[in-house]
Amino acid sequence: IYYYLPHLREYEDAIFPNVIFGQQRTGVSLVMGIPTVKREKQNYLIATLHSLLYQLSEEQREDCVMIIFVAEVSVHGKDSLASFPREVQSGVLEVISPPASYYPDLSKLEKTLGDSEERVRWRTKQNLDYSFLMLYAQPKGTFYLQLEDDIIAKPDFIGSIKSFAAQQSHDWMVLEFSQLGFIGKLFKSEDLPLIVEFFLMFYKDKPVDWLIDHLLWVKMCNPEKDAVNINALFSHCMSEITFLYINQQDKDFGKMLLHKAHNNPPAKVDTSLKIYKQYTLEKVYKGQDCFWALAPVAGDYIRFTFLNPLEVEKYLFRSGNMEHPGDKLFNTTVEVLPADKTLRKELIHNGSKFNYPATKDGYLKIGVFENGTAEGSISQAIGRIEAIRLSVSSDSPVWAILSEV
Asked: Where is the MGAT4 A/B/C C-terminal domain (predicted)?
């Protein structure tokens, strides 16, 4: 760690956490790491802890530790655990934070992957947060489960995780219980030093979930395996990686609960938002997956343009989902574009004759998102509609998921 973070040579105590609460419990089967950050809109940590703890039997409570990693000084670690005195006293819950001197200077990072300076700084600090948390958790138990502060737990989630781990007939490095980001990833504690060292090598370069993918490629891919044929090499690597990286999701809790499908009319979709991985707008519109994008800013939009203008009676847009209930659309309006061009010109020049305010480009504002959801009826006096647009009016502190259209 001194090699990759040389500034720590001047701060000998910087690698030791401030233990805000904790009984230093060790020797358990499962350690859960829960980083938490300050959120402008809402704090989901309390709901997450209630969800996790509610599912535990007394035996499971005695055989696990939940470590809340307070990633920012302004986060209220003590306030968050005032509701859980029994769990703190028994050792189930711990709260730690890193000394400020643990972090290097993050103000002069090289911009990579086309990300903004703020985004590069955020993901770099996140990589350092994960590394610190993992090293602290490493000696405490047999397995380490990476969680986040805005999740909902399934009944007997610990039993299911332990059972699935015990079923593996060959060596593994990652068991995946959620396909989103870095959530629900199970590691053997004995592997954590290697994983953290890899993170620290490249903490400035890529997000944490990409780094774990790269680590698996390094361990399993043989570049001499039919290297002339890149497709064969890729196929070989992927088949090898599946031995180390194993996905498990219950048949009744997978992607179908993370989005809801509807038979929507044919439309062209487009957005100004930066899409995350494969979670495209087309997929949520067709009911194949959720739409997930980086934090919206004022002026961003999501638009659905019908191939044939049609009369729309009702609309429903739901943001956030079970795994990321906080990734909602805030300060966002629902707008429709009348197919009648004469009407649009009138709206632009004379304003709206309906009960809806008009925009400068001929749309009518028919609704707003409230608590992540926008739904309602549309006046049939508007006639056929050419497009529906979701318009963001202010910068958002969180990413955005659209799980139902």
From this structure: 267-404
Report d(CA 137, CA 135) in Å as an integer: 5
Determine the Cα–Cα distance for residues 246 and 183; give it in Å rounded to an integer. 14
Q: Return the residue matching tokens 């004379």.
A: 350
Q: Are the C-beta atoms of residues 111 and 206 closer than 8 Å to each other?
A: no
pLDDT of residue 229: 53
Q: Does one domain contain both 297 and 227?
A: no
In the numeric block, which tokens belong to residue 401? 């998921």
Verify that 285 and 169 share a domain, yes or no.
no
What is the average pLDDT score of the chain? Answer: 86
263, 267, 273, 277 alpha-carbon torsion, rounded to 10°: 60
| Residue 183 belongs to domain spanning | 6-246
* Cα→Cα distances 201→100, 193, 206, 214, Å: 20, 12, 11, 12
Asked if the structure places residue 255 within a domain, the reply is no
Q: CA-to-CA distance for 290 and 276, rounded, in angstroms?
A: 11
E-strand ranges in 311-362 read 314-319, 332-338
My answer on whether 272 and 240 are in the same domain is no
- Sheet hosting strand 314-319, strand order edge to edge: 291-293, 400-404, 314-319, 373-377
In order, the DSSP letters of 187-198 are EEGGGHHHHHHH
* Helix ranges restricted to H, 74-181: 77-80, 85-90, 117-137, 157-167
- Quote the CA–CA distance of 110 and 118 in Å, as a whole number: 11
Going by pLDDT thresholds of 50, 70 and 90, the confidence category of residue 249 is low
Q: Is the pLDDT of residue 235 over 90?
A: no
Would the pTM of this model clear 0.70, i.e. be above it?
no
Beta bridge partners of 392: 332
The pairing of strands 64-70 and 28-36 is parallel
Give 382's contacts (C-beta < 8 A, 6+ positions apart): 336, 338, 343, 354, 364
**Of all helices (H) and strands (E), which one includes residue 54?**
helix 45-54
Q: Give the single-character DSSP code of 183.
A: T
Question: What one-letter code names the amino acid at 347?
Answer: L
Q: Kindly report the three-state secondary structure assignment for every residue of 29-64.
A: EEEEEEEECCCCCCCCHHHHHHHHHHCCCHHHHCCE
**Per-residue tokens: 165:** 């781990």
278 and 242 in a single domain? The answer is: no
Q: Which of 194, 217, 246 is the last residue of a domain?
A: 246
